[in-house]
Specification:
Length: 200
């Protein structure tokens, strides 16, 4: 898949599931449930034990999905993520090692940051991840975008499903959501309602 196709898929999804689970089996179950429900993009985090095996399992089951590896902070983990089937990498903060690896392998990289300077640097190179987003909320995102018009920013961290539309309204390129989706009894319905509002 081409670089721009991956970035476009993240924006089109509008909601980016960030699957941080206690074990690999839980990550695989959550990812496959969401992908089976029609969501085309998911992110599995490198803090999950056995995360690379989980990525391989999900890739085998969904060869056409756009898969991300999150909380990647070293070049070694970045390399393992690509070998395991990841299409894009995500870091929680600026990481020169991961950035260099992504640039040399032409891999989509959502580099994390919180300050306007960090976000500006990341957005100049691609999509920026605003983390932890709950510190400033949608109002902070709106303020950052006021001085960085056109920046593609994905806020993540402490965002509940009920807040997704507020972040989208503030200008988010997509919104990263974690535990709310993993725990939802009907993940497909939870995604739809988070983006469009509850069924009437």
């Amino acid at each position: 898949m081409e670089h721009h196709d991956i970035e476009r898929a993240i924006g089109a999804a509008r909601l980016l599931p960030v699957l941080r689970t206690p074990d690999a089996a839980g990550a695989v179950r959550a990812a496959r449930t969401l992908l089976d429900a029609g969501l085309g993009v998911v992110e599995l985090t490198a803090t999950t034990p056995g995360w690379s095996d989980a990525l391989r399992d999900v890739r085998r089951a969904h060869p056409g999905a756009v898969l991300g590896a999150g909380t990647v902070t070293t070049a070694g983990d970045a390399r393992l993520a690509l070998e395991s089937g990841a299409d894009f990498l995500v870091s929680p903060y600026p990481s020169e090692d991961v950035r260099f690896f992504a640039e040399t392998t032409d891999t989509v990289f959502l580099e994390g940051g919180l300050t306007p300077a960090e976000i500006a640097g990341a957005s100049e190179r691609g999509i920026a991840k605003l983390f932890p987003a709950h510190v400033g909320g949608p109002a902070y995102l709106r303020s950052v975008l006021a001085v960085l018009p056109g920046a593609r920013i994905v806020p993540t961290g402490g965002i509940g499903l009920a807040e997704v539309r507020d972040y989208l309204a503030a200008g988010a390129y997509a919104v990263g959501v974690g535990s709310g989706l993993v725990k939802a009894p009907d993940p497909a319905k939870a995604v739809r309602e988070a983006i469009e509002g509850p069924d009437l």
